[in-house]
Design goal:
Blueprint (H helix, E strand, L loop, with lengths): L4 H12 L4 H8 L3 H9 L8 H15 L3 H18 L14 H45 L6 H12 L1 E7 L3 E7 L2 E8 L4 E6 L2 E6 L5 E5 L2 E2 L10 E6 L6
Antiparallel strand pairs: 1-4, 1-6, 2-3, 2-5, 5-8, 6-7
Helix pairs in contact: 4-5, 5-6
Length: about 240
């Protein structure tokens, strides 16, 4: 299938940076058949909606391209393909205006993005509420047992000092984690990954894409590591669990 401007530009930018197909697929975790379909503008082999946009955004980020500009070219090329597809001969319904597919794609993306951010915000509020409720229950339990021995108090203090870190990714990014200054992880994590780590005193978390990482410390949602789309580093300890 002949390529248009989008596919030709994507391939040209990859080759100018001397990035092979094998290197790109390993770094982004995107199948080679999807990358080839994007470069050939073989839309029939590509998923639509948020999945196609995720592929384009991840490739643009790895190649150092402007993500929004490349997404705009992708949407335009795909919309032109949809508008250029001839109707079946037996269909007598008039074809929709050329701008209709573009509008439909835009509305779909707006709806999906709204659901994503609303769900993420709701989950963080719920995680914060759950952590606060657990903390209040633990405090009430401690107050109701005044006769506990010093050994039991020491065990409770030790248990309270243990930090549990949950790391979730919404997109592929590199993550580095130090627990009590010991390296636990330094790897590229794919989208949808969820890992748990433990420490006695503190964590140091570094992410290549701050907006792609969601952190929870002892069940409490933490703020973003850095600015969206940029790398960042955050140190977490018991003080981050204080009200």
């Amino acid at each position: 299938m002949a390529r248009g401007n989008f596919g030709e530009r994507l391939k040209r930018e990859r080759e100018l940076r001397e990035v092979s197909m094998d290197e790109l697929t390993k770094a982004t975790r995107i199948s080679a058949r999807f990358v080839q379909a994007l470069e050939n503008e073989d839309w029939a082999k590509l998923p639509g909606g948020i999945f196609g946009h995720g592929f384009v955004r991840t490739i643009a980020r790895y190649l150092g391209l402007n993500e929004e500009a490349l997404l705009g070219e992708y949407d335009l090329a795909r919309a032109e393909h949809l508008a250029a597809t001839p109707p079946k001969s037996e269909d007598r319904i008039p074809s929709p205006p050329k701008w209709f597919p573009v509008l439909a794609v835009f509305l779909l993306l707006f709806f999906v993005a709204g659901l994503f951010y609303a769900g993420r915000y709701g989950w963080r509020r719920y995680a914060a509420y759950r952590a606060t409720k657990k903390s209040a229950a633990a405090s009430l339990s401690t107050q109701s047992q005044p006769g506990s021995t010093s050994q039991g108090s020491a065990e409770q203090s030790s248990s309270a000092a243990l930090l549990d870190l949950s790391v979730s990714t919404s997109a592929a990014t590199r993550v580095r984690i130090l627990a009590d200054k010991k390296l636990l992880l330094d790897a590229e994590l794919p989208a949808g990954e969820n890992r748990h780590f433990s420490a006695n005193q503190q964590f140091e978390v570094t992410a290549g894409d701050s907006s792609a990482v969601l952190l929870e410390l002892n069940g409490r949602a933490m703020p973003p590591i850095g600015a969206p789309g940029a790398s960042g580093t955050m140190v977490l300890s018991q003080k981050d669990l204080r009200p």
